[in-house]
Design goal:
Blueprint (H helix, E strand, L loop, with lengths): L4 E5 L4 H13 L5 E4 L8 H5 L3 H7 L6 H19 L4 E6 L2 E3 L3 H9 L10 E3 L5 H10 L4 E2 L5 E4 L9 E5 H10 L7 H6 L1 H4 L4 E4 L3 E3 L19 H25 L2
Parallel strand pairs: 1-2, 1-3, 5-9
Antiparallel strand pairs: 3-8, 4-10, 5-8, 6-7, 7-9
């Protein structure tokens, strides 16, 4: 498989790097580790890109420093893809588990010539397995990727970036759309009605979250939304309604 493989990993987390090295070797993939961004090293310039008012109006809470760092880490790979004129790359987070048939799935996916691709990004994992499975059961796959998996154009947000294939066109769109950061990276990619990156996914997913690993993002206070106040909650409700309209319109125009 000629598709470059980039794995995000914080330099201080050697255990995850070792586990992912073994995981890649197990399925015959050779990965290049890209340093993640440590939340403790975020600069003022990094924070200046954060649009707090838009985040609270749409996302409903402030982004955590770890979420901003995670965004910047993925963006680092997007820039590498664009700067080095890479056609497409497999991007993995270091807390994932890989199916044995991932290389053959990727070979089948990349067999489509670039000019004939309908997609700019293909998700290989999801944090909304129930919702995505329900949609996949109702849809016919655009392409079979082996005996058990298929490529689907879904009509909802996917959530999670444990594994995905990113093209240069998709990377450029994400860099342009994310000049100001207002949501975590997976939520930002999921706003397809704004960023124009139609959601595609391989299902059943060949990449899943490795449950034994601890999250580096951290937990939120369950009372976090009440901090918005009544006015803030109404603003968010209106924005969610607007997003719903935008999503339905995009899906109608791009079935």
């Amino acid at each position: 498989m000629s598709l470059p493989v980039f794995v995000l990993n914080l330099p201080r987390d050697g255990a995850r790097r070792e586990r992912m090295t073994a995981e890649l070797a197990r399925v015959g993939l050779d990965g290049h580790f890209i340093d993640g961004v440590d939340a403790g090293t975020l600069s003022q310039a990094d924070w200046d890109r954060y649009d707090r008012s838009r985040c609270r109006a749409i996302y409903g809470v402030d982004m955590l420093a770890t979420e901003l760092a995670c965004y910047l880490a993925h963006e680092r790979i997007f820039r590498k893809i664009v700067d080095e004129n890479i056609d497409a790359a497999l991007i993995l987070e270091d807390d994932c588990q890989i199916a044995n048939d991932l290389p053959s799935v990727l070979d089948a996916l990349m067999a489509t010539p670039p000019a004939a691709r309908l997609w700019q990004v293909v998700r290989l994992s999801t944090m909304r397995e129930g919702k995505i499975s329900a949609q996949a059961r109702r849809l016919r796959p655009l392409r079979r990727l082996g005996d058990d998996r298929g490529l689907y154009r879904v009509h909802t947000h996917v959530l999670g970036l444990q594994g995905y294939v990113m093209t240069a066109a998709g990377a450029r769109r994400m860099l342009d759309y994310g000049r100001k950061i207002f949501m975590p990276i997976d939520h930002t990619l999921d706003r397809y009605w704004e960023n124009r990156i139609t959601p595609f996914i391989v299902h059943p997913c060949p990449v899943v979250h490795h449950d034994e690993g601890h999250s580096t993002i951290g937990e939120r206070d369950p009372r976090r939304r009440t901090a918005l106040g009544l006015g803030g909650r109404w603003v968010r409700r209106v924005n969610r309604w607007r997003d719903g309209v935008g999503k339905r319109l995009y899906n109608a125009l791009h079935p």
